[in-house]
Design brief:
By secondary structure, the protein is α+β, with helices and mostly antiparallel strands. The protein is about 40% helix and about 20% strand. Helix 2 packs across helix 3.
Length: about 120
């Protein structure tokens, strides 16, 4: 379970991360990673994460199972994210049939790619 302070909860937080963050897509999920600007007080906050699992993934039981797996995987990796970062993990329909190990491998790969893109970008807004 993610601690309350480590969760993205508001629509504008998700939208900002998706709009301004760096994206890395894989066959089962897409990761959006963004950093708060250095002048923003949120830049000193712990990393935060949110999940998007649409009805295209499956019925409610399947969606909740995928969300639980992703939440568990991200919780273990939250400490590796930079301070002040926000992460949105969007599950694709193929995530429903994936094992936790497969999701973990794709999550690691996508996070590496998004982090690399984030380090190479211009100074924050």
């Amino acid at each position: 379970m993610l601690p309350a302070g480590a969760r993205l909860t508001r629509r504008d937080e998700f939208a900002s991360t998706i709009r301004h963050g760096r994206r890395a897509g894989r066959s089962r999920l897409v990761v959006h990673l963004d950093m708060a600007s250095t002048t923003d007080p949120a830049s000193q906050a712990s990393p935060r994460a949110g999940f998007v699992v649409s009805k295209a993934v499956g019925n409610a039981v399947v969606r909740h199972r995928v969300t639980r797996r992703l939440r568990h995987l991200v919780a273990a990796r939250l400490g590796t994210l930079p301070t002040g970062s926000s992460l949105v993990v969007r599950a694709l329909p193929t995530a429903a049939a994936a094992t936790s190990a497969e999701l973990g491998a794709e999550l690691d790969s996508a996070l590496r790619s998004a982090s690399k893109k984030l380090r190479g970008r211009e100074p924050a807004r």
